[in-house]
Structures are given as C-alpha cells and as structure tokens.
Amino acid sequence: MEQLLSEIRACDVCSAHLPLGPRPIVAAHADSKIVIIGQAPGTKVHATGVPWDDPSGRQLRKWLGVSDADFYDEKKIALIPMGFCYPGKGKSGDLPPRKECAPLWHDALFAKMPNLKLIIVIGIYAQKAYLKHTAEKNLTETVRAYKNYLPKYFPLPHPSPRNRYWLTKNPWFDNEVVPELQKLITSIV
C-alpha cells in the first residue's frame, strides 16, 4: 500500500490540465474499513495537502458523526477522490474531477484494502462511477434510495456550503438519512 500511495502522490499524468499543478491528495491504509469517495480537492485542500480540510469536510464529519481523530485515522477511513488534484475553477464552482484518476488508481487501491465494509459515494461523479445503471434519475433520488445500495455503498450529496439550498429543500436528508448514516458508521468504526 505504501508503494502504491507513493506512486499516486507522484502522479503527473494530467499536469498540463491543472492550473495549480499536480498535488494528488489521498489517504488510505490496508486496514481501512470505510472509503469515502469525493469529487476532487479544492484550493484549500490543495494548499494544505490534507483531504477534506475545509468547510465541506467539517460538514461531512458532522453528517458521519465522527471526530477529526477518527476521520483522519486511515485504518478506519480512507479518503479517495474521483480526481486526486485540484481541477481548476469553472463557471459555477470547481471544474469536474479529471477523468484520468479513478480508472488509473481506484482499482489498485481497492485491491489493497481487504477489510472494507462501506464505500460512501459523495456527489454525482462518484455515484455515476460506482452505482452505474443502478443510480436513480438524479442525485436527490439516489440519496433518498440509499437503502437500495447497502450494505456496500452509501450515496450522499456533496457537503459543500454551496449545497445549502439542496439541504433546505430536502429536510428528510438531515431528519432520516443522517441518523441512519451515523448508526452505520458507529457500528463499523
């Protein structure tokens, strides 16, 4: 696993497309029990090199009901984005994750984590990649149908502050889904 992580962190396959240059962000261990698959690091995470070290990460830890210590314990939780580097700025936020990363590295990472119990797929990019044809017609319906993907997957919306409107419009998420997610995480961690 350490050799693989070193290779990932040295990757520069798509450097020509990265406005801040390559800085692959990943955290994993052979003993990881949960994998969180997010979108791609933002500028703050790119600067610090610490995955989910931003407002989105704080919100995600609240949803999961875990401490920072548990969240960043790689033996418990692996943090693997769809795109490992900051992709750049788009019209309404960051650009989509680079398409090279997941096919290049995900299978190799998963092959080295035999103790996985749960894969949390955050946002539409991770859900399309992992839930494929079983995903519902949109992110909202996929998250609402989270029980259909258990015990292997748990779909979530992105915890970005930009998603406040979605959370306000879908109060069932905080009332019904988050408590079930927290119970599941507690039982695994």
Description:
The protein is an alpha/beta fold and 189 residues long. The protein has a single domain (2-188), classed as Uracil-DNA glycosylase-like domain (Uracil-DNA Glycosylase, subunit E). Helix content is 41%, strand content 12%. It has helices at residues 2-9, 43-48, 55-64, 68-71, 101-111, 123-131, 139-144, 164-169, 171-188, and strands at residues 34-38, 77-81, 89-90, 93-94, 118-122, 153-156. The strands form two sheets. The protein has a four-stranded parallel β-sheet with strand order 2-1-5-6. The longest helix has 18 residues, at 171-188. The chain starts with a helix and ends with a helix. The model has no long low-confidence stretch (mean pLDDT 96).
Shape: globular
In angstroms, what separates the terminal alpha carbons?
21 Å
Number of self-contained structural domains: 1
What oligomeric state do the depicted chains represent?
single chain
What integer is the average pLDDT? Answer: 96
CATH superfamily membership: Uracil-DNA glycosylase-like domain
CATH topology: Uracil-DNA Glycosylase, subunit E
Helix content: 40-55%
Tally of DSSP β-strands = 6
CATH first level: which class? Alpha Beta
**Strand sequence of the main sheet, in spatial order?**
2-1-5-6
Note poorly predicted spans: none
Q: Output the helix-strand order.
A: HEHHHEEEHEHHEHH
Sheet with most strands: 4 strands, parallel
Class computed from helices, strands and strand pairing? alpha/beta
Radius of gyration, whole Å: 16 Å
